[in-house]
Amino acid sequence: MKLSRYLQGVRRMPFVRRYGSLFGALLAIGATLALVVGVFAGAGAAAGTAAPENTSPPTISGTPQQGRQLSGDKGVWSGVPTGYTYFWMRCDKNGGSCSNISGATALTYTLGSADVGNSLRFKVQATNADGSTSASSVPSAVITAAAKPAPPVNTSLPTISGTAQEGQTLTGANGTWSGNPTDYNVYWMRCNKRGNACANAGGYAATYTVTKADVGNTLRFKVGAANQNGRTFASSNPTAVVIAAVAPPPPAGSTITVDKVSLPDLLIIDKLSFSPNPTRSRGPIVARFHVSDTRGYSIQGALVYALGLPYSWLRSAAEVATDASGWATITLQPTAAMPLQHGGSLVIFVRARKPGDNLLSGVSTRRLVQEGISR
Questions:
Q1: Of 314, 325, 251, 313, nearest to 288 (Cα)?
Q2: Half-sphere CA count of 198, side-chain side, radius 13 A
Q3: Is domain 255-373 annotated with CATH 3.40.50.720?
Q4: Range 163-235: architecture per CATH
Q5: 3-state SS assignment for residue 158
Q6: pTM tops 0.90, yes or no
Q7: pLDDT tens digits, 65-75
Q8: Are residues 64 and 139 in contact, defined by beta-carbon separation less than 8 angstroms?
Q9: What is the CATH T-level fold of the domain 53-136, as seen in this structure?
Q10: Which residue, of 134, 137, 254, 257, has the greatest Cβ tally within 10 A?
Q11: Residue 8, by phi and psi: left (phi above 0), alpha (psi -120 to 50) or beta?
């Protein structure tokens, strides 16, 4: 209204009357510019009065466990914030009764013992020239205690390499372990044939020499792995049943006792002699039989038995053991049934066996021989 009265007064001035139309145009232009400037000035004043506004709340990521780190995200804001301030708040397990955690003003936060059993919120304060606004995340899950430190855990059993035989050396390996073991204790255990009822065998190193006491048993390699949280034990599978040492063979051609002969070796009747030969009467016949084995050793202590064929031609004779040279001497007594004829022969069945073996098995041997008969 003031502007309208002012313009009317200007129009009454002599100068304006003389140049009225030109001046009127200038006044119209001026008034328009003034109006435009006023509009933009008013718009600028209106824009400068809005503080930031949160359009998507802050969030929390990470594992809610003591010793782990959580990360906060500020969310989304309108109003062109020029700065942000962060706060981590400790709340009860339902997300209420929250209070700022002293010094926790970064985008990340490492959970401590005081947080266990509570929940956390991440609070963001956004600021621009017209003010500041705050918004908080939803509460985290309830914070759990840190996992209890654990001793080592065996992931692959200890092992044993080598031959389970008296006098042989076995080697144990620790197997594999988790939990970063810093120390290992090892033990050799003597067990029964099934790998049970184990007891310390007296070995405390990675290698073990099998003893006579181990024969007929099995062995296990036991390992105790330790770290700062304790020690855990694990044992290998049992070995095969330990066998006795194999004695070195005697010199070729020498005599050994029959108890040293075992399958697959066998006895052999390799030499024989008769006196007289041929026999010309029904007097005693001295028969000698030599026993060796398939390795060529003369055998002492083998039991030799001789039987005439037909049965009625000779009287039965007892078994005789071979002497230190491997010979057995048996006296055969012909009967009156044995014919004395030129060119005849007496067939004799001879057996040699190991005492204690079954008569038809074991390392025994059999042979048919003959003695000549003449008139």
A1: 325
A2: 20
A3: no
A4: Sandwich (2.60)
A5: coil
A6: no
A7: 999 999 999 99
A8: no
A9: Immunoglobulin-like (2.60.40)
A10: 137
A11: alpha
